[in-house]
Design goal:
Layout: E1 9-21, H1 28-33, E2 37-50, E3 55-59, H2 66-73, E4 81-86, E5 89-91, E6 106-109, H3 113-116, H4 123-128, H5 137-147, H6 165-177, E7 183-187, H7 195-212, E8 215-219, H8 223-229, E9 232-237, E10 240-246, H9 247-252, H10 257-265, H11 269-275
Parallel strand pairs: 3-8, 3-9, 6-7, 7-8
Antiparallel strand pairs: 1-2, 1-4, 4-5, 9-10
The chain binds adenosine-5'-triphosphate (ATP) and magnesium ion.
Length: 297
Amino acid sequence: MTSKNGAAVEVRDLVVSYPVRRALPNNFLRRVRSNEEYSVPALKHVSIEAHPGETLGIVGESGSGKSTLTKALFGLVPISSGSVSIDGISAGGRPIWEIPELSGVAQYIFQDPFSSLNPARSVESSVREPVRRLPNAADLAREALLSVALDPQIDGTKLPSQLSGGQCQRACLARALVSRPRLLVCDEIVSALDVSVQAQVLNLLSVVQAQLGTTVIFVSHDLAVVSLICDRVVVLKDGEIQEVGPTNEILGSPRNPYTRRLVASVPGARRALSGVQHYALGATPPWTDNSFGTELA
Ligand SMILES: Nc1ncnc2c1ncn2[C@@H]1O[C@H](COP(=O)(O)OP(=O)(O)OP(=O)(O)O)[C@@H](O)[C@H]1O
Ligand SMILES: [Mg+2]
């Protein structure tokens, strides 16, 4: 599904290397004296595009560079070379919130919901934070909490540590959605949730995308979920793109040897992938509970 409201993302020839200080095992003195640094290339000349309103999946085994790629979009990791742009505006070189033209355009939901929320502030206060300067911030936060099936009067007043993992992830989603982003990056947001909460979160994403036309970049190990909700998919291995294409083609009948291994390595994935029918976020998914997420304006 495409929409004019979503942001366009373009990554060209991106190289990201992490500096690492050499640590020599079992030799503390040599380690302390050594200033030797070397670089670990995490992304090697990666180019991707996300079209406005589409859901782009990013898959690959652990350490393949998925989080590095999404963090690079938000300027959260140093870029060695290449370019990143969101809606044609150069990004990636510095944290996105320091770029005035992109203020409020994009939101990132991290894998670990507990470390994403301020542990000392109420859930409502964290959800309100992105819109705190707006006069109706409290109403927007309330609406966002309701849209993820959290009670503003009860759950909103709790500290993150007083929520379950699933509730906390939904609070992160509420915080990401409160400013009506045009680009939403989801890094493994459903991996830790049980199936029913996964369905709620995915259902909410589908509602959001239908209503706001948000571009979604969805990082996940769960190939069955990716095949359900992503229009296209990028397969990463060791920081390099193996292939990019429509999800049905890439995951439904994998031809690339690495993708085949990836699909084969997930128990039940082949069966799940061959049995599911792809539909875009915003179409009616099989888990739809019509009452869920309807509060979202
Ligand atoms: N801060 C860092 N310093 C040094 N190396 C890092 C750092 N963060 C990531 N790396 C390395 O970069 C590579 C890519 O890591 P990244 O976190 O992007 O992988 P990933 O695909 O998101 O993995 P996962 O599925 O486990 O989350 C890995 O080899 C990792 O060890
Ligand atoms: Mg990661």
